[in-house]
What does this fold into?
Amino acid sequence: MDEKLTAILDQLNYPSDLRELPESKLPEVCEAVRRFIINQVAIHPGHLGSSLGVVELTVALHYVYYTPEDRLVWDVGHQAYAHKVLTGRKEQFSTLRMKDGLRGFPFPEESEYDTFSAGHASNSISAALGMAVANKIDGSDRKVVAIIGDASISGGLAFEGLNNASSQPNDLLIILNDNRMAISENVGALNHYLTKITTSERYNLLRYRAYQTLRRHNMISDRVRRSFLRFANALKSLFSHRQNIFEGLDIRYFGPVDGHDVVKLVHVLRKIKDLKGPKMLHVCTIKGKGFRPAEDEATIWHAPGKFNPETGERILEDTTGMPPQYQDVFGETLVELAEKDQRIMGITPAMPLGCSMNFMMDRFPERSFDVGIAEEHAVTFSGGLAKEGKIPFCNIYSSFMQRAMDQVIHDVALMNLHVVFCLDRAGLVGADGPTHHGAFDLAFFRVIPNMVVCSPINEHWLRRLMCTAAQHEGPMMIRYPRGRGVLVDWQCPLEPVQVGKGYCVRPGKGTTAVLSLGPIGNEVAKALSLVDEDLGVAHYDMVFCKPLDTDLLSDIFANYKRVITVEDGCINGGFGSAVLEEANLQNYQGKIIRLGIPDEFVEQGSCSELYQLCGIDAKSIAESIMSNL
It folds into this structure.
């Protein structure tokens, strides 16, 4: 970054510094912030494209609004890097997404400028509406702004918030950051609508004059305002020949506005800042703005890893001779299964590249569905497919699946429908932190009647469990982690296994048996290599959390005085709890020690750091074995 831009940024530690500048300096501020983000993320990987797209909008918001007294609610959180730079955190940016470092998303504990947690999508309107209504009740003049982008508006919660906004007393401003992109390309009718929506200059002039006349004569009550809004909406439809979906919800609409003209944004925000009632400002931006590679390939540059900030060349890991990623094994295996059975379908909520559903989309586009940021719909849509004889493989990140548990219960399990839930990113995921760790899926899936819950120890077992799920008549959940597996030679025959059966990985003649579920079993194997073989510690891969292999457990309880369970999931209610429950039923008199994710939200860091923190890395497991002998 050149000296001039560095000097500009050095002057700006907080928004109060920004507000001291003349408007004419704001374009230079935007360029300085943009270059800073590019240079930092090139070295300290994170989410790039989304934050580059809202630099001007972020500068304008902090320039017009008196943050942190006024509230900015970001949605989705990976838009907020420029916000962090301007709110006292640019010196910490080198710690982005590291253990004990700067978070990748807004979080109130990190800064008073972060008004609400924003690791997932579509919550900003509801949260900001709650704040705005509270301000009305308290008689406060505090302003509240929700900034919703990257297709979060397509989420069901966003529509629930929109529907409720006009029925409550509030002055909320909703800014729709319309970049025509989610992480992958946007889908759905709403996206097409947003790219075509128009406004009429004649309408806006007439509306403004009429509104000012009513104000001068003190004729603006809530009742008159609502009546005027409905009349004005009718006029707008007449002038522009288009009905606006937002004004149809009694939310006053402004835009579209160029999201990269910072001075224009400042003027527009000042004009609408003090208007009463709920409002929406539609801002059009370009994801990756100001960095040509990110503009040209927005999906790749959403989170590109390390790269050269001058040339845009990505610094890619040499994967020669390395095992594949679990998500790619899923994608390849799904295609193989679909080639053999025309009933098999693929469903993902806006993550075809992230979960490798793109393999299925390329091979069978007519049997593959990206439903947008709508996990609840993805589950119920899958239920509908299953009701008509299809076999949907519904792939959702573990932490995102939490939104759709009601649908899993009522729209799939209750009817015992043949839906296969493939939960990617299960367990600790690393740098994305507590909003993205897939800690709770074992606990909440295993309590659902009719549900089969399992996890593969490696890629071969993932393929076998997917084959089993395709044949099993009923709902089944398969969980697997983020990142690479353990087998370079990952392909194997697609053969089903018996549901509810585990196996012995390593026999033992001592007093202790270790029971694992899923890929964390590989850490157990490493741990046992650190333990004296003469101690005769046994290792069992249970494969299924539900139904448990009760016959195998009976044999284990009969032969070992101590049982240690290991899982990459929450201890409370998870795999270890299931073993405890069965031990109670079988009147087991030995000792059971459970290892897993503790009853707290685990912070960000590398997976190896977090495994150690939770006591489920090989060394910690070995120490637990030795301390309990």
Observations:
- The longest strand covers residues 562-570.
